[in-house]
TrEMBL record:
GO terms for molecular function: GTP binding; GTPase activity. Keywords: GTP-binding, Nucleotide-binding. CDD domains: Rab (cd00154). This is Uncharacterized protein. NCBIfam families: small_GTP (TIGR00231). Pfam families: Ras.
Amino acid sequence: MSSAIMRAASNAGHTKCATAVAGWLEIGEQAEIEDAITAFVPKDQPLRDEVLNSLMEVLKLEQTEEADDSEKLVAVISAVTLKAVQRENQTGRRSVSVAGRVTIDETLDLIKIALIGDSGVGKTCMMLRFVKDQFVSSTRATIGADFATRQLNVDVLNASETSVVQRLTVQVWDTAGQEQFQSLTATYYRKAGGVMIMYDATNRKSFDNLGRWVEDVDAHSEGIVKMIVATKADGSPEVSEQEGRAFAEQRGCLFATTSSKSGDGVLKAFQLLAQHVLASQEVKERDQEFKRLSLSAAQAAPKKGCC
């Protein structure tokens, strides 16, 4: 195939992807956006990577050599839903879902929080209570991951004396707890700002498994803010609050006790974690700026001769 034909095919694919992105931004439900993108991306290689790379170019996303196709797909879904939130902020249209964190000049500050833990500890109920203020007594097991968003007011002066952010947009990822999905789960919290590692206070086994979850987070992330969350505090506990708090302190984690059924502690837990995530991100940004300025100064300094 000649280079001209290859360029023409590439341009056609790029145009098709750009058209698809424009269509996805018109969809009103986050789950429908994810389904549409997943259906659009081919299952077979090498076409799958080609389409994902084109979508990332259209969305102006940074590409790294070590990123696999599942990470690229998550990045595309997140970027499209982020654009939907930015559009809503400009036009007043209904919000869908967002990802990552961007500057206040683009939209509200955005942070990503992942919910992990054994299957059945109440991750989906926690997300629904936080996002919709609803309690659903029976939910299906999460396959892979699901996500939702809401805006959250935080006392930002507790996070940073210099912060100007008063309202955050929080993206919550509800991940699968089943063992066969744990490698996929790591993909979702790898780049999160914060993670809630959850256990059922009425189920001792889920508490005993916390150590494995914490180790998995530490192995697949860097600088993430961790919070141990006791769920179902309204039930008959097999694990005391004191025991849960002691575990969190030992592992260097925040701690919260919650009940999705009554709503007790849910909002406070997200506010506390969001404050610490924001503070952590600001420290990272200052460190990066200091390194950049130090490097610029070193490059600008005159070099001394050997004699």
